[in-house]
C-alpha cells in the first residue's frame, strides 16, 4: 500500500472541505476501508502527522473503520459476508451457489471528520 | 464554536478513477483495446507480451507502455521486436496510474492502434489499487511463486479478468497445487478465466490468445 500518496490525497480532501465549511481545526478523520485493502492505520497516521504539519489538520487523529468483504450470489441474489483469509472455498450460505460478485471489501473512503 | 461533524463520503484517489474512466471510453471510441498486465517481478510480463506480439503482431497493430522504477531494458526488448514502446520511468512509484497512461498515450497514436499493452510495475500490491483505464486486467503468477499467492494478495485477484499461470514447465519441480490455486481464485473472482501456459516452451499459449482475441473482438 502506497500510504504516503493516499495520505496526501486525504489531506487535500479534508482541507478542501474545511475551507468550504469555515473550519478552524480538524480533530479527527474517519476512513472507511474495505478489508481487502491492506491498509495500515499506524502508517497512515504517521504519514499524516508528517504531511499535515503547519496545517489546520495537524494533530488530527485518523480512525479506520473496516468494511467486511461481502459477495452477492448470482444464483439466488442474496448477499453474504466472508472472512477471505480464513476460507479456502467460498459458497453462498443461502443456496450453496459458487457464482457471485464482490459487493464490498475494496472501499477506500473518507467518511467524515470532526472539526471545530 | 463546538465540535462539529462534517460528512465527506469522498473516495480516496477518486481523481485517478475519473481519469481512468475517461481513458477507457475515449479508447473504446477509437477502437483501441487497452490491456493492463500485472505481476510480481520476474513472473513473465515481458515474455508474455513478446509471445503475444509474435502471435498477433502481423494481424493487429500493437504498442506497449513499459513501466519500471528505472531502466529501459524492457522497452528495448519490445522495440527490438519491431513494436512501438514507450518507457515510463516511475521513479519510485510502485504502480502505474491513469495520469501516466494518459501521458504515454500522447507519445503513441492510439487512433492507429488496435491494442495497447501496459506492462505494470512488478508488484502484487499497489497496481491492484490504481485503475489505469484498461479495458481488461491480467494477473500473471508463475509456478515458482507458489499456489498460496491469492491468499496473501487477495485484492489483485479481485480486479483481474484473467489469471495467467506461467512457467508450467516448472510444475514437475514444484509443489504447486493447480486445483487449489484455481479454487482460491474462484472464491474471490469466480468470473476470472485461468490460462495455464509456459512462455518459454509455448505450451498453453493458444488458450491465452483465444481469450485475448475474444476480448479484442468484443470491445
Name the CATH homologous superfamily of chain B: P-loop containing nucleotide triphosphate hydrolases
Unreliable stretches of chain A, pLDDT < 50, 5 or more residues?
none
Q: What is the CA-atom radius of gyration of chain B, in angstroms?
A: 18 Å
Strand order, biggest sheet of chain A? 2-1-6
Q: Over the alpha carbons, how many angstroms does the gyration radius of chain A reach? A: 18 Å
Beta percentage of chain B is 15-25%
Stretches with pLDDT under 50, minimum 5 residues of chain B: none
Tell me the number of structural domains of chain B. 1
Averaged pLDDT of chain B: 92
Which CATH first-tier class of chain B would you pick?
Alpha Beta
Main beta-sheet strand count, sense and barrel state of chain B: 7 strands, parallel
Order of helices and strands of chain B: EHEHEHEHEEHHEHEH
Assess the beta-strand content of chain A as a share of residues.
Answer: 25-35%
The quaternary state of the protein chains shown equals heterodimer
CATH architectural grouping of chain B: 3-Layer(aba) Sandwich
Largest sheet of chain A: 3 strands, mixed
